[in-house]
Amino acid sequence: MKKVYPDATAALAGLLRDGMTIMAGGFGLCGIPDVLIDAVRESGVKGLTVISNNAGIDGVGLGVLLETRQIAKMISSYVGENKTFAKQYLGGELEIEFNPQGTLAERIRAGGAGIPAFFTKTGVGTLIAEGKEVREFDGESYVMERGLFADISLVHAWKGDTEGNLVYRKTARNFNPMMASASRMTVAQVEHLVQPGEIDPDHIVTPGIFVKRMIHVQNPNKRIEQRTTRTRAGAEAAGVGGGAI
After folding, report:
1. Is residue 22 one of the residues assigned to a domain?
2. Planar angle of CA 38, 181, 105, nearest 5 degrees
3. Please, how many CA atoms are within 13 Å of residue 132, restricted to the half-sphere of its CB?
4. Is 173 inside a domain boundary?
5. Coiled-coil annotation: which residues (predicted)?
6. Domains: count for the chain
7. Can you state the percent helix, strand and coil of the chain, rounding each to 5?
8. Is 229 exposed, middle or buried, given 0-12, 13-18 or 19+ CB atoms closer than 10 A?
9. For residue 226, what pLDDT band results from cuts at 50, 70 and 90?
């Protein structure tokens, strides 16, 4: 099977439809499949349910789909950096299903493993548990959470071979690997595309069996969500200006 496509539009051709559920990898702005997200925007599909740790920021990542009002529901953990998100939610235009971050990760992992539900102590006695089954195990209360499974997963990898085997780097490994296994179709954008056999098998995180389509995105734009600076140690005493990230 030929998995490598010339661009994001071609890679998503025939996969997108109104009302579908999409998983989008990344953590903050790190490891987001931004090129694929832009192609979703250009397709014009709407009424989407999007599962993602966060909603990007205004104009970046999933923020571009919020601007065009293509997202109807977000299943997320943290969305505090997006003003458009807040405005649409408070205006009743956007449905939100909030999750504790660890619970969201486990719901996705469970979906990929074929586990329909599990019990966790996180959220017991809070708004998170409202309307959900609570059961006692060994004298402790646990709330039932459902596994998550999507129509399509969009992920970003540092390296991949043409058979779809993927390697992630540092923070970008956060949600991408579990999402790659938790949908009917995974489409990956990779920074470094190599031939089969060029990746040490011990380094492969997502086996190629999970990845059906890929695009090569060289030199992606890696944005900094929040830039914090400080004076370099010793620079001030030496009379030298400047800061270090």
Report:
1. yes
2. 85
3. 23
4. yes
5. none
6. 1
7. 25, 30, 45
8. exposed
9. confident
Tokens coding 175:
């949600």
Residue 72 lies in a domain: yes
Q: What are 74's two structure tokens? A: 């977000």
**CB–CB of 43/21 below 8 Å?**
no
Mean pLDDT of all residues in 70-98? 91
The string of pLDDT tens digits covering residues 171-214 is 889 999 999 999 999 999 999 999 999 999 999 999 999 999 99
Locate tokens 């009002």: which residue?
A: 69
Which residue segment(s) compose the domain that 185 sits in?
8-114+149-216
The region that residue 185 occupies, defined by phi over 0 for left and psi between -120 and 50 for alpha, beta otherwise, is beta
Could you tell me whether strands 152-161 and 186-194 are parallel, antiparallel, or unpaired per DSSP bridges? parallel
Find the DSSP H helices in 55-122. 63-67, 83-90, 101-113
